[in-house]
Amino acid sequence: MLSRVCVAAVLCLSLGLAACGGDSGGGSNTLNFFIFNEPGGGPQEVAKKCSQESGGKYEIEFTFLPSQADAQREQLVRRLGAEDESIDLMGLDVIWTGEFANAGWLDPVPDDMVGPASSQVFQSVLDTAKFEDRLYAVPIWSNTQLLWYRKDKVGDKPPQTWDQMIEVAERENMKIHVQANRYEGLVVWVNAMILSAGAKIVNGPTEVSLEEGPTKRALEVMGKLANSKAAPPAIDTSNEDSARLGFESGDSIFMVNYPFVYASAKENAPKIYKEMGAAVYPRVDADKESKPPLGGINIGVSSFSKKKDLAYEAIRCMIKAENQITIAEKGGLPPVRSDLYDDPRIQKLYSGFVDPLRDSIEQAGPRPSESPAYTDLSLGIQRGVHPVTEIKDPQESYDKLKEFVEQAVKREGLL
Amino acid sequence: MSTAAPPQVGAAAEKPRKVGVTERARAERKLAWMLCAPAVIVMLLVTAYPIVYAVVLSLQKKDLRFPDEGGFAGLDNYVTVLSSDLWWKVVGNTAFITVVSVVVELILGMLLALVMHRAIFGRGAVRTAVLIPYGIVTVVAAFAWLYAFDPATGFVNDTFLSPDDKAWFGERGSALFVIIVAEVWKTTPFMALLLLAGLTTIDEGLYEAARVDGANAWQRFTRITLPLMKPAIAVALLFRTLDAFRVFDSIFVMTRGAQDTQSVSILGYDQLIGRLNLGLGSAVSVLIFLMVLAIAFLFVKGFGAAVPGQGDDR
Predict the structure, then answer these.
(1) Does residue A373 belong to the interface with chain B, where contact is any CB pair within 8 Å?
(2) H-type helices in B47-171, by residue range?
(3) CB contacts, 8 Å: B171 with chain A
(4) Cβ of B122: how many Cβ atoms within 10 Å?
């Protein structure tokens, strides 16, 4: 099937036939869902179930996007830029909402759908699906970063702040893993640090915020970690996977990362797994609650789709509580409905860290994705703080970051 | 030599025609145009149209994410690009990768060509073996090198090359080194093949005569091989320089431009595909096009003068 779609797409591109778009996905009740191939298979199973339950009203067919978020976005925007009618449903990373909505590629969620789409959903998660106070996508699963620690080294009470963590790690002569390569993961870290310190990167889409005191404080902590003994040697190229591997190797005491690391450790490093504890993301200042990173997927309906009503019907089915649990059980992806964290199946699935997980999503601080020029912003932030090992004078680093963010907000210059 | 003869005949025949074009010549010329027309039209459609469109876009303020904006921007986009530090840094990067990889390829390619030319047995096998890297898709080759040098999966860190756990893509110097090595490995065969074609045109008799006169191997190489191969070397260098200047795949796969390893093509890609800023991205593309044109022009001018002269000497 996939190859047939590809061939059709290639033919459409090469021949420029206008008629290709409509029939590349089969019959009139077929909904084409463009999303990455979630390895757990949860979304696929849920879509299949919903198609069956609809009694032939619709049939969801998947077109899989690459596994990396950047590459997914590139494929989607190329099709959307060309007003491709063959996309009905899209799995959107939480940071794409502003960009896609402003470009006119997303159908605003109809009024009768807003209720079901937001019922019991964490406010922080719902905000990621909004642009200019309007809902443009429907959250289906969430994700957040937790502080993972070694119980055999720090007991059941891990330190609350980065400063304390660095101190403990240096004393134990062990590492702290973060994500600081020049990629979106670095933006995730910087954003969480700046929000936790009490500042914001932007105030709305066109205004730079970056309050000087707290931002400098956040950068200072990042630089302190990067230049301490607790930093892994390759910190400037670190990502989620290198952090996971480093932690599994046993030389690390702390790591900030998504929950997939827990299942991974169970498989790859059972000894470490037994000693793994999870807590809410660390604070920058002891007296301020942290703002953990937020990830996850929202489902959007393309404004070029010819089957919008059917598409919303399918979404209504896929986001049902029961189906969110299926997705969590298959792939470990946390539900977006807060009430589900009391469900015994979810309690069992995340046993040991269900409370930090819920708290983390609840108090999470999203990236500034309400900005339609989020890509510029992201590139600017990456250039502004990478490499973190060079953050030695907070004032200098602050000026550099601010300059880049200002340029990005104005969408000026090369990035 | 015979290769130089046809242009002279053509040039001689050109002059009288200009005075009075015969009926037949006119008909022939018309036929020639008609025979060429389909190819010319296709060329215009697939190359000229996109180039013109890119130029038009580069003069506009156009961003796919902001459909309401737009309009004529004049040369603003070019000013933005040319006044950006990043642009010049990236041009520097690209020039560095181009010069180093082409020089290394030329030396290695020449050695390979000499080996292939002199191979006594298994000529076919040797030539095929040398060509294998060139037959591999660039992206695949780039991944092979990426995995080889990756600290987690690679074997390079286990060899004498690097005693400790070096993060090859973690800093600019070593990342550029791997990128250049991958480029050289991939395209040296192409260079060697073009040079081999040049080598085979040299008359063996010249070497024999030189040997009789007492020229040693190095003298024969510098006095006979190199001068006579000048056109072949020029073509090989031109193709490879143009190719290397547009390097994309290896960098995209290995660093995606991190650690200041961007090339101009990566930069254009980031503006066009990443930021969807069609105006700015098109300006970058047009500038790349102009630079490629300039390189081609310099090569043709620089080496071109030597090409016809060579025929007269012989």
Answers:
(1) yes
(2) 49-58, 76-82, 85-118, 123-135, 138-149
(3) 236
(4) 10
